[in-house]
């Protein structure tokens, strides 16, 4: 078996399934190996940002950028517990192991000079990695000249060791789940300010990693999000209205194979040593795109399969409608969001369920153009006016019953016997066909499907908070979930499970 087969997305997914009867050995990691929750360039100068605010501003200036960063990935509150300080971040992350980093590539933005920056979470400052306008380099790596003129682009990365130390090989799924959850916050924030965003999942991986100074066996780019003040339509020869990313690469930018700027120093060591998981970085490497032509070919393949012209610009996330019908600023919702530890077995209303479905299933504008790649299923246990059972969400507002029954005990069993799944009012399952992923997007499509599921889960968190209910993500037995939903376990990737209720 050659490497391209061994490290395919299908092979990775199969190898990391939870199966009943298999009990993973308890993870015992030397305390000195447990990594820090931040990447820090402490020897670099700090560029202080204005205090984040909740008022809506027009345009993209340094104050708006500060607010976007804070409510996307910053620390939103601290609590003293047992003599130590617990920090709560803006977006949920598996195991509270915050492994997602944000880099900013911008032109002159307010009083922020053009450059490449790392967002330092504890100090809420920017650390300059490269001076000057590197948007042309980023545009070349992403094979679209939209980025060359956008005021700023945020690049999201994941550091493997900060999640693998606890979850081992399955942590590769979390790279995209957790990035998607963080993205949900950003997209809600930009929508509330009428800022135009484009989520790019296709790029030349090594070029983007070089621009940011990453070690691609330890930290990888996951996506880039351009932010602009005007709506930009994706265009291609196949559909000039709105179907995919610009299908040509921009004029070649200067070479950036040099190290980081002369004043840049290495980031702090995460821990004394790291355990390497080759299955993760080799699976990731196998789906990398090697040059701009590969990026445009990949996008064209995706958008031919499913044009974006049917997608309206997503409007969800502008405001949250609270339990009493009041409109709540998105910053307040993010600040109040918590992951539920347990649920009361009490019902939610049908309008609340519909609002959760609507938030999760609203369009996601990606360069790959595959909004229907991910399916939504429910196990509804306690929804007023809805007979308990299993359902498929055909479209927001349209539920197709798979069977009617009290499935609380089933839900608990499917979620590795975690009582929260059975006590919740409803369980959301996001799934995709592995064959469909391969046909449309090849192995790289696995990343896209997981990101979509992560964004949907993040939107569920925000919608639940606005509605006065609670939500949490849970793990699951992969094949048992597929079987329970009348899906083929050999061709179904169960992506995420979200429970919601009282």
The value of Rg in angstroms is 22 Å
Q: What is the CATH superfamily of the largest domain?
A: NADH Oxidase
Strand order across the largest sheet: 1-6-5-4-7-9-8
> Which CATH class of the largest domain is shown?
Alpha Beta
Low-confidence stretches: 234-254, 307-319
What gross morphology would you assign? globular
CATH topology of the largest domain: NADH Oxidase
How far the N terminus sits from the C terminus, by CA atoms, comes to: 49 Å
Count the domains: 2
Compute the average pLDDT.
Answer: 87
Q: What this model shows, in words?
A:
- Helix 3 (62-73) packs antiparallel against helix 7.
- The chain has two domains: 27-295, NADH Oxidase (3-Layer(aba) Sandwich); 320-501, NADH Oxidase, CATH 3.40.109.10.
- The chain has 17 helices and 17 strands.
- The chain is globular.
- A hairpin with a 2-residue loop joins strand 2 and strand 3.
- The protein has helices spanning 3-6, 9-15, 62-73, 135-142, 146-149, 161-167, 171-192, 205-212, 278-286, 292-305, 330-336, 350-361, 408-414, 419-423, 434-441, 445-467, 478-484, and strands at 47-48, 75-81, 84-89, 100-106, 115-120, 125-131, 152-159, 196-200, 219-228, 320-321, 327-328, 375-380, 389-395, 398-404, 426-433, 470-474, 492-501.
- The longest helix has 23 residues, at 445-467.
- It is an alpha+beta fold.
């Amino acid at each position: 078996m050659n490497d391209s087969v061994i490290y395919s997305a299908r092979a990775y997914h199969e190898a990391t399934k939870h199966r009943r009867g298999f009990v993973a050995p308890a993870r015992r990691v030397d305390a000195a190996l447990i990594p820090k929750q931040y990447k820090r360039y402490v020897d670099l100068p700090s560029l202080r940002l204005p205090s984040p605010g909740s008022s809506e501003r027009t345009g993209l200036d340094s104050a708006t950028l500060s607010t976007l960063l804070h409510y996307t990935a910053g620390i939103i509150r601290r609590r003293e517990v047992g003599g130590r300080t617990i920090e709560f971040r803006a977006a949920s992350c598996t195991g509270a192991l915050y492994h997602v980093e944000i880099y900013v590539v911008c032109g002159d933005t307010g009083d922020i000079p053009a450059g490449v920056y790392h967002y330092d979470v504890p100090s809420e400052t920017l650390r300059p990695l490269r001076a000057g306008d590197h948007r042309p380099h980023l545009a070349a790596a992403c094979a679209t000249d939209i980025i060359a003129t956008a005021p700023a682009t945020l690049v999201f990365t994941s550091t493997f060791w900060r999640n693998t130390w606890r979850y081992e090989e399955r942590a590769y799924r979390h790279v995209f789940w957790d990035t998607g959850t963080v993205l949900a916050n950003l997209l809600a924030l930009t929508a509330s300010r009428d800022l135009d965003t484009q989520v790019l999942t296709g790029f030349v991986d090594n070029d983007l990693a070089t621009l940011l100074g990453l070690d691609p066996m330890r930290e990888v780019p996951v996506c880039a999000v351009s932010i602009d003040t005007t709506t930009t339509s994706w265009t291609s020869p196949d559909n000039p209205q709105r179907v995919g990313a610009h299908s040509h690469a921009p004029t070649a930018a200067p070479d950036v194979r040099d190290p980081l700027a002369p004043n840049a120093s290495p980031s702090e060591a995460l821990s004394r040593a790291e355990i390497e998981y080759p299955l993760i970085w080799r699976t990731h490497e196998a789906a990398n795109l090697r040059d701009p032509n590969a990026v445009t070919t990949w996008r064209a393949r995706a958008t031919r399969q499913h044009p974006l012209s049917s997608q309206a610009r997503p409007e969800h996330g502008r405001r949250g409608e609270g339990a009493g019908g009041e409109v709540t600023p998105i910053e307040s919702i993010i600040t109040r969001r918590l992951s539920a530890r347990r649920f009361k077995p009490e019902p939610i209303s049908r309008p609340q369920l519909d609002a959760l479905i609507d938030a999760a299933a609203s369009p996601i504008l990606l360069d790959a153009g595959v909004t229907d790649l991910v399916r939504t299923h429910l196990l509804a246990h306690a929804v007023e006016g809805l007979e308990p059972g299993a359902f498929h969400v055909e479209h927001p507002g349209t539920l197709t019953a798979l069977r009617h029954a009290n499935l609380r005990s089933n839900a608990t069993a499917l979620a590795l016997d975690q009582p929260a799944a059975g006590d919740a009012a409803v369980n959301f399952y996001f799934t995709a066909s592995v064959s469909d992923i391969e046909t449309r997007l090849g192995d790289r499509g696995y990343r896209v499907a997981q990101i979509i599921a992560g964004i949907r889960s993040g939107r569920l968190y925000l919608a639940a908070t606005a509605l006065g209910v609670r939500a949490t993500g849970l793990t699951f037995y992969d094949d048992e979930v597929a079987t329970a939903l009348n899906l083929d376990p050999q061709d179904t990737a169960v992506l995420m499970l979200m429970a919601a209720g009282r």
